Amino acid sequence: MVIQPKVRGFICTTAHPVGCAKHVQEQIDYIKSMPKVSGPKRVLIIGSSTGFGLATRITAAFGMGAGTVGVFYERPGEQDRTASAGWYNTAAFETAAQKDGLIAESINGDAFSDEIKHQTIKRIKETLGQVDLVVYSLASPRRNHPKTGELFNSVIKPIGKPYSDKTVNFMTGAVSSVTIAPATEEEIKQTVSVMGGEDWGLWIDALLAADVLAKGVKTVAYSYIGPKITHDIYRDGTIGHSKNDLERVAHELDQELKQKLDGQAVVSVNKALVTQSSSAIPVVPLYISLLFKQMKEMGLHEGTIEQTYRLLSEELYSGHTKLDDQGRIRIDDWEMREDVQQKVTALWQRVNGENLDELADMEGYRNDFLKLFGFGFPEVDYEADVNPIINLISIE
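and the corresponding structure tokens:
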């Protein structure tokens, strides 16, 4: 079939297998061009098929020579329907890893479930024995609780009062105002249940009980804080409450792992980047497009793979990890530099539909978004007939 992008809202409903493979290969090539990092050799990534999770898997494998087990929930292709981008990403990763003689095992299913936890533990025992790094990078709008069966749904809302500000349709460039009603107490609770730290804790508990965590194990979960511009909808909203819960769990896990395995649990606060998750948050795409323009002009811009390499090489496995006063790694340090934020804040006051292209890098945002789904690569023939069915080596 001939595959073209079909964008609906903040989601692209198609993905291109050749383009996704190109995107993965670009990240692999970047990691191979950088100095090798002394780090973990057996890595579990929970949420490994897109964004920071995929970049971490690539960095660990091709920058550290690690065998990896990746957990994700993705859709395979059919004759008349493309697979999800994460499926194609994983197929490309596995092919490249096998070529380099690296262990690359994948588990496809609901990572919140006990069943997938048990499957993952079994695969670790069969292939790696134990793991010395566990990365938690799940992004899901809903969660079935594995113990009670209750279904929780997350919302992106402010807390306490309505929120109004500018937003942008990143495909059309239309700038408009958005008003979002505050979350109810039940919505806050459900969002924390989906996006907070409980499931991370359940994963570590299960891995500990199965004796598949190596001595000195590290575990890291990814988070975001962002600037004052987005605080009402993000850090002070329902998502922020969830991130606070994630950090609470990190402190508990850190104490437990230190005591039992001389290990460490930490939250990494990452930079704002174009991901499927960030594209769903009102206001954030407009902020990111302003941020990107400034950081590119200042020579400070990083994509997901550059950010992840810096996290692992200069922080997590540097021997001198720097933590903030809340015990977090701050790999968002370039974004949150005072000179960067001053410029972005000034532009935020001015930006509108007429000057958007002048003040913001909306084209860069749009290109990054389409690349998530394998589109926008000049060397890929998007008029060619391609087979949407790509098998994963590690999944029969």
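(Above: one complete record from the training split.) Residues 238-261 form the longest helix (24 residues).
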